[in-house]
Design a protein that fits this description.
Blueprint lengths: L8 E6 L6 E6 L2 E7 L13 E2 L5 H11 L16 H10 L8 E2 H7 L6 H9 L12 E2 L12 H12 L10
Parallel strand pairs: 1-4, 5-6
Antiparallel strand pairs: 1-2, 2-3
Length: about 170
Amino acid sequence: MTTTSTVTRQHTVIDSPYGPLTLVATDGLLSGLYMTGQRHRPPEETFGLPDPRPFGEAVRQLDAYFAGELTEFDLPLRLDGTPFQRGVWAELGRIPYGETRSYGQLAEILGKPGASRAVGLANGKNPVGIIVPCHRVIGASGSLTGYGGGLDRKQRLLAFERGTEDEAPALF
């Protein structure tokens, strides 16, 4: 006897200072936050039906974050990935607001000192940007390397968190 499980997905699109954000829920839990033009953005047809109901708390917390009133998200997430990816994403959530870590530092924390490239790949596949703050990861030299939402957004998010957004170019 085989059983098939049905996965329910819904999505909504909200405005943000960084352009429209598509929020995706899988079985009622936030499983995606995607920016326009984001690398590794799944096809739209996988997002499910439009329905804003599962996203009330996520929208409230994002609004508070963008208003500068929230520095740490507290949302139940459904992050589908390999054990290594989920480990990287968990460490991303431990990087304090306004701070950065290098790919190499994250690899060291994970007990895999030679895996900075693998950390970078997992970072790039983070399905819930901003909330799982992959924008806080930088190159070993301090350079802004790679960001699925674009380096301009990464620069603006970091400047916003540091309180120096007036110095970052406004591109949206």
